[in-house]
Amino acid sequence: MQIEPKFKDSEHFKTFWAKGNGKQLLNWSGWKPTFKNFENFAHLYYQVDELGDNAVNDTYLKLPYNEASALVQQFSKNKISENDDAPERLKRFFLQMQEVPNWFDEDLANNGARLCMRSGTNALIILRDFVLMGGYDYAYLNKPLIFTGALKKGAVKRLKDTLEFWIHVTREDALKVNSEAYQLIIRTRLMHSYARLKIKEKGKNWDYEIWGEPINFWDMLATYTGFSLVLMQGLKKLSVKISEEEEAGVFHLWKYIGYLLGIPTEFLPENRQQAVEQLYLWSTLQDQGDEGSVQLAQALLAENLESTIYKYPFQRKLLLNLHQSMNWFLLDREINERLQIPKVAVTAVFPKFIIKANQIAQQIYNLDDPRKYRKLVEIGHKDQMKVLEDYIKHTPKDFQY
After folding, report:
1. What's the Rg (C-alpha) of the chain?
2. What letters, b where the CB count within 10 A reaches 16 and e where it falls short, cover 164-176?
3. Is-contact 31 307, C-beta < 8 A?
4. Can you give the pLDDT at residue 291?
5. Residue 240 region, left (φ>0) first, then alpha (ψ -120 to 50), else beta?
6. Do residues 151 and 296 lie in contact, with contact meaning Cβ atoms separated by under 8 Å?
7. What is the pLDDT of residue 352?
8. Which DSSP string corresponds to 282-305?
9. Quick count: other Cβ atoms within 10 Å of Cβ 146?
10. Which domain of life is it from (predicted)?
């Protein structure tokens, strides 16, 4: 199917890339906007993870649920071989996943993991208030959430799952075959396929021409660019220093995660120039936030009041105000307004506090001193794990999508 960069002349696109966070990305990357490579990526809007789809078709859509889960769990925890008794297409899926490509450099990926870890709660704030909330302004990217009914079920479980995934895949040496992070990636990949197949089966109103395939490769690339490029942009806003080795490591880490999720390797960005180009070209296909975007944004804000991590209502209200202040500090004004995020009275106070705290911490724990750097990594890791433990503890056990 032939597509064009239909929103390249739209006001929301031009504003973002001419004066908003998009302009910051262009300045940081040094990449000059051009549409000459649009066709190199456009076909990804209609391409999906066929290996994952085939595996789901031969398991969860064919076998009793317990039997399908047992098979997937067996080969998630143990290597599969050609001789194993399993559906042929499930075998192909796992054989691809457990093949570590020659280009993967674990030491380089660990550089990226250490940045993710030492950034502590900064990273969690950026993921929630910048990456996730900002992503809701891309109307078409969110359509699978709407079609699978996730909108009606609140943000608590979705947030816990995202947090659990991100923390586990961004630890040092985490991505070994059959590791816990590897198993989480398998679950995520199969969940993508299951959701896509159900949308194709039941979503009669899915507009393929405008929205592409459900959970297509280009949308996936944009999503994981949020976990690499946009995460680092947000950290820089909070005065978190990032070395060249860490930056290269983050891109390499997410290149391998993308590979494990089935995305074609040749399209996974290796540096900020490639990532900005992809995000720029992809965003020409995305309309600005719509009614569904507003509902997702409001559900994410409401999660502060619904979560039982804090006992008292005044604590939850304060947390909501803090996240709103970060939204307004991190996101462009137009996006905050489109998503109908209320502006709090002391918007700048909390971000300034975080920035000052980061500057002081980086003076105390000199990043050039290996022992102090390692200490910062350990502290950040513990802080992130504590937040995850709280979310796991306070997410209803019987919650289903």
Report:
1. 21
2. ebbbbbbbbebbe
3. no
4. 94
5. beta
6. yes
7. 94
8. HHTT-PPP-HHHHHHHHHHHHHHH
9. 19
10. Bacteria
Evaluated on CA atoms 350, 351, 356, 357, the torsion sign reads positive
User: pTM value?
Assistant: 0.95
Rounded (10°) CA dihedral 125, 128, 132, 137:
-90
SS3 content of the chain, % helix, strand, coil (to 5): 70, 0, 30
State the pLDDT at residue 157.
79
User: What are the backbone dihedrals phi and psi of residue 243, each rounded to the nearest 5 degrees, phi first?
Assistant: -80, 165
Return the pLDDT at 33: 97
The pair phi, psi for residue 307, each rounded to 5°, is -65, 140
pLDDT score recorded for residue 346: 72
Query: Residue 141: CB partners within 8 Å, gap ≥ 6?
Result: 135, 219, 222, 223, 286
Separation of alpha carbons 109 and 128, rounded Å: 23
Answer for the pair 228, 276: CB distance below 8 angstroms, yes or no: no
Structure tokens at 294: 């507003």
Q: Quick count: other Cβ atoms within 10 Å of Cβ 202?
A: 11
Which among 258, 267, 221, 262 is positioned nearest to 94, based on CA atoms?
A: 262
Query: What is the 8-class DSSP label of residue 178?
Result: T
Q: Please state, as a whole number, how many other Cβ atoms lie within 10 Å of the Cβ of residue 360.
A: 10
- Quote the tokens at residue 268: 């996974």
Q: What does pLDDT average to in each consecutive run of 10 residues of the chain (401 residues)?
A: 92 96 98 97 98 97 94 96 93 96 98 98 97 97 87 73 95 97 97 95 90 97 97 98 98 98 97 98 97 93 75 79 95 97 85 95 93 96 95 63 28
Alpha-carbon gap, residue 401 to 153, rounded angstroms = 7
Q: How far apart are CA 331 and CA 237, in angstroms?
A: 11
**Residue that has been written with the tokens 């943000």 in this structure:** 155
Q: 225 is written with which tokens?
A: 């660019």
pLDDT at 399: 36
CA–CA–CA angle 34, 36, 39 (5° rounding): 125
pLDDT at 221: 97
CA within 13 Å, CB half, 365: 20
Q: Which residues contact 401 (CB under 8 A, 6 or more apart)?
A: 148, 149, 150, 153, 157
